[in-house]
């Protein structure tokens, strides 16, 4: 059986006895194992990164960018293999895995522009013969910890930009899906990155705790669930480390009575059930304004859902695949049942889907629940499964109040034809990423990604311009070359240009 190891100092290491099973969620069987790191692997990775840092930091940005250009070419050339590896461990269908990879590649493209991104700010003659400039210097060795649901894209949010900015990086991927992440890491080595600049240490919370506590690591990027994001942010910031920690979500779409209902239904289907709802930007709640809109929405959604196909990752005709583990499947089923017990209507019930030939896969069918209220457990929690809940309200104000009162604030969307309503919504909604007739408003690589409230802990969000600022620190230099002809006297007052 294949064992996925670490990548430390340019070499693959799978030398530990301590391993964990990796499931193929489509079949429910264990097909690989992953090595779980400990103190020694973290120490070795930090030592390799520290050793590589002085030369990498001094490498001209244009040369660092060329490594990223070659990395992009290799990612595109190996797209089929990467998507197969994602599918085997995550269960994502190839069309969806291709989308994940493409969104990741766009972050590599952005990192290719690093000579431009690192340009500083310059002011001439801030005083007599005095010039001043700010430059953006790398932090040193930084670490990233990533979730299971985007094994390639979320790591690509982090390390290409961090490395292009001159840092060395240690990645701790999700132990449930390490294969595609490690394969992609090897492509970056092949692209010409010196050994030690990028290291991957596999493992669980033990490795995470060591990375956070390690004195050799200056900053932590985290993406995962909210309780872990909050704990990591608290620990890292108490140690004086820069930290950005992206957490969970509950994303609402307001469906206004004037919306193009057929379009809203199509958009909601993809955003709620794509990737089995295991996206932090999945739309999991439709807030319908007025009973007429709600009745039409539920009737059109349930009709369209008859054609949705859940199944194994290899079959591209499937709309979405299994969920990540048996335990996660049971949790989703429990939340659907709790909604039913609390008085909601399970209009389309995906609790017992039949997937021919895959009796042990972790499948949940597309589920639609109507008449959900905000006090229900299924509403309050992030379900992270193919479940769309409908909440009925009487006005847009009521819909916005519900969204603003939810503890999460990652993404949201409004379906409407009314520009004034859309503008009011985007202005006043307390959510970090907003769509207007766009169901998954995931910012492109040259903007930045970050939710509000308990979906994000930190100041600088992920990738794009904020990513450059996160992975660098500003240094401001003020310089004077005194003229031989002009001698300054002694002054004890604060220098000014008065
Ligand atoms: P998770 O929090 O269980 O795990 C994320 C990472 O943290 C993994 O690498 C894991 O090994 C590690 N980890 C888990 N428990 C830990 C602990 N107690 N201490 C230290 N490290 C720990 O998340 P997941 O189940 O892999 O991913 C799904 C979650 O991630 C969802 O909540 C989803 O919304 C969220 N997510 C958020 C974003 C975003 O951008 N906001 C993006 C993707 C996923």
Which descriptors would you attach to this protein?
Aldehyde Dehydrogenase, Chain A, domain 1, about 40% helix, methylmalonate-semialdehyde dehydrogenase (CoA acylating), 23 strands, about 500 residues, binds nicotinamide-adenine-dinucleotide, NAD, Ald_DH_N, 2 domains, Aldehyde_DH_dom, single chain, oxidoreductase
Describe the overall structure:
By secondary structure, the chain is of the alpha/beta class. It has helices at 39-58, 61-77, 79-90, 94-111, 114-117, 153-164, 178-190, 205-213, 226-238, 261-273, 291-305, 326-341, 377-380, 396-405, 419-428, 464-470, and strands spanning 2-4, 6-8, 11-13, 19-24, 29-35, 121-127, 130-138, 141-145, 168-172, 198-200, 219-223, 242-246, 251-255, 283-289, 345-348, 367-370, 387-393, 408-409, 411-415, 433-436, 452-453, 456-457, 472-480. Helix 2 (61-77) packs antiparallel against helix 4. The longest helix has 20 residues, at 39-58. It is globular. The relative contact order is 0.14. It binds nicotinamide-adenine-dinucleotide (NAD).
């Amino acid at each position: 059986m294949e064992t996925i190891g670490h990548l430390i100092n340019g070499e693959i290491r799978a030398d530990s006895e301590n391993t964990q099973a990796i499931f193929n969620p489509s079949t429910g069987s264990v097909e690989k194992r992953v090595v779980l790191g400990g103190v020694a692997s973290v120490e070795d990775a930090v030592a390799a990164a520290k050793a590589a840092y002085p030369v990498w930091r001094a490498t001209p940005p244009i040369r660092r960018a060329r490594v990223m250009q070659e990395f992009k070419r290799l990612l595109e050339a190996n797209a089929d293999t990467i998507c197969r590896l994602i599918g085997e461990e995550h269960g994502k269908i190839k069309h969806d895995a291709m989308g994940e990879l493409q969104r990741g590649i766009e972050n590599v493209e952005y990192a290719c522009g690093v000579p431009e991104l690192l340009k500083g700010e310059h002011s001439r003659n801030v005083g007599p013969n005095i010039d001043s400039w700010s430059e953006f210097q790398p932090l040193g060795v930084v670490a990233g910890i990533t979730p299971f649901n985007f094994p390639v894209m979320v790591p690509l949010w982090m390390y290409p930009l961090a490395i292009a900015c001159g840092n060395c990086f240690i990645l701790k991927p999700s132990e449930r899906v390490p294969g595609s992440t490690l394969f992609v890491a090897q492509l970056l080595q092949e692209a010409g990155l010196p050994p030690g600049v990028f290291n991957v240490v596999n493992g669980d919370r033990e490795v995470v705790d060591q990375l956070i506590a390690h004195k050799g690591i200056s900053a932590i990027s985290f993406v995962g669930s909210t309780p872990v994001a909050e704990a990591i942010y608290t620990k890292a910031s108490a140690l004086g480390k820069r930290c950005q920690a992206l957490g969970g979500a509950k994303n609402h779409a307001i469906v206004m009575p004037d919306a193009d209902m057929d379009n809203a239904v199509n958009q909601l289907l993809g955003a709620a059930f794509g990737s089995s709802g295991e996206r932090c930007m999945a739309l999991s709640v439709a807030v319908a304004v007025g009973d007429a809109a709600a009745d039409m929405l539920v009737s059109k959604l349930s009709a369209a859902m008859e054609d949705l196909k859940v199944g194994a990752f290899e079959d591209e005709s499937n709309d979405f695949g299994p969920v990540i583990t048996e335990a996660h499947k049971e949790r989703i089923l429990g939340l659907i049942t709790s909604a039913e017990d609390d008085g909601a209507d399970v209009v389309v019930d995906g609790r017992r889907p039949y997937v021919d030939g895959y009796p042990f896969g972790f499948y949940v069918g597309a589920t639609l629940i109507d008449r959900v209220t905000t006090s229900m457990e299924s509403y309050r929690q992030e379900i992270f499964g193919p479940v769309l809940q409908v909440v009925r309200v009487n006005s847009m104000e009521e819909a916005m109040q519900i969204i603003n009162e939810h503890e999460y604030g990652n993404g949201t969307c409004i379906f409407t034809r009314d520009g004034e309503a859309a503008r009011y919504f985007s202005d006043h909604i307390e959510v970090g990423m907003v769509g207007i007739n766009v169901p998954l408003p995931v910012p492109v690589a040259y903007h930045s990604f970050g939710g509000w409230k308990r979906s994000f802990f930190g100041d600088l969000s992920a990738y794009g311009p904020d990513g450059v600022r996160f992975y660098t620190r500003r240094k401001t230099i003020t310089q004077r070359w005194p003229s031989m002809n002009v001698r300054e006297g002694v002054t004890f007052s604060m220098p000014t240009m008065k």
